[in-house]
Structure formats: C-alpha cells, structure tokens
Amino acid sequence: MNITNKTVLVTGGGSGIGYATAKLLIEKGNKVIISGRNEEKLAKAANELGAAYIACDVTDATAVNNLIAKLEADYNDLSVLINNAGVGFVYKLGEGANAVDKARQEFETNYFAPVRLIEALLPLLKKQPEAAIVNLTSNVAFHPLVVLPTYSDAKTALHSHSVALRLTLSTDTNIKIFEVMPSLINTDATKDMGGEQHGLPPEVAAEDIYNGITEDRYDIFVGEAAQQYADYFADPKAAIAKFNQGLY
C-alpha cells in the first residue's frame, strides 16, 4: 500500500510508538492527526511533530462520537487508522490480585475502544480509493506473559478481531487490515516491565510499521516477536515456558 499523501489518525499519539510513528509518517509526506486523553501533552506533541490533534478518551463513547464528527467535518479524506492507544498492568494472577478490575480497564482501552472506533470509522474509510486499519497488539497476543495476564487476554482478543475483520472486509472493500506485534519497546508505559533496560526504541517499531504497510505485510512483527511466533507454532509448550522463564 502506498502510504504517502495520506491522512492518518494515530490514537495514543502523544508519546511512545504512536509519537514515533506519527513523526515518521509526517516525514514521509502524510498528514497526521494524533489523539489522546491528555490535551496538554497532546498539544505539546502535535506542536513538536507538526501534526494536528484531537483530544479524545477512546474508552468514552460520547468522546468517540465527537471525534468521528470532527474527522468527518475536517478530515473527510482520512484513509488510515492506527489503533495504538493502550494500557497494561504488571501483576500476577492469584488471591487478592483484583484481576477483574484490571482486566476491565485493559479491555476497555485495548479491545473495546479499537473495536468501537473501527466500526464508527468504516463509512469514512470506505469512501477512500485505498484505506487501512492498523491494530497494535503484542507478542503476548499469541502466548501469554504471566506478569501481564489480562493485558495478554485483551491483546489476544484484538488479534482475533483483526483476523476476522481482515477476512470480512476483503470481500467487498479496499480496506486493508494490518496487525503489529511488537516485543518489548522502551516507552513510558513499559517502565514497570523493564522497557528502559531491555526495550527497543519506539523508532524501530515505527520503521517496521511503515515498511510493513508499504510492503502489504499484514502481520508486522517487531523485534523478537517474529522468532517468538515461529517458536510458538513449532512447540507451543516449550515456547511459553521459555517466554515466561523465571517469572512464575
């Protein structure tokens, strides 16, 4: 897919992978709108990037409706949606873990929010000569990490949704569905996970996302995720044990 002179929405674009991806897409000649909950942070990032911004909590249905109305009014050539916004809790399952409340927050941001946004934007995306939806899942989408248990659940759900959506839209639309599966990336959100010590720079993920879209690679692996994926399908039990070594 040609991703030049496109209008792109990046959720969670104020920092991390979203920011790096927005920056690269602008450098490649695209018009980018970033969204996020913190308007002050978002405005600062947009000014640095030369991007537009729309403050929006993607877990709030009313806020999403307002976002859609703004996009339809001011950016009716929008052709790429990048669902990057996410949240995760580092903990272990067990007595007193409060897993339900943590899972609810993770699913609201990591699963229900992109599902809602995709459905709401389909009419606009269908109007474009070519369009794409890019869902950021994770290497935990194909095998769980025990210290990110319900985050793994939510990303697995978005992975499944992405596959079903790709098959469904391939029959009667020009919308391509890409799934990005990063390994650990160094962002503000991954500090509790060792991101500063062991994570890849977000610019690496941005490059892989851009190259994956231009090459029509619907499964985009970042960092160690490609080898982890291959290991999992070669020997699931061994791969999961290796992935979680020393954590349980």
Automatic annotation (TrEMBL):
Q: Which domain of life is it from?
A: Bacteria
Please provide one cellular component term from the Gene Ontology annotations of this protein: membrane
Q: Which family does it belong to?
A: Belongs to the short-chain dehydrogenases/reductases (SDR) family.
Name of the protein this chain belongs to: Oxidoreductase DltE
Provide the organism lineage as a comma list: Bacteria, Pseudomonadati, Bacteroidota, Sphingobacteriia, Sphingobacteriales
PANTHER family cross-referenced by the UniProt entry? DEHYDROGENASE/REDUCTASE SDR FAMILY MEMBER 7B (PTHR44196), DEHYDROGENASE_REDUCTASE SDR FAMILY MEMBER 7B (PTHR44196:SF1)
Show the GO MF annotations: oxidoreductase activity
Q: Which UniProt keywords apply?
A: Oxidoreductase
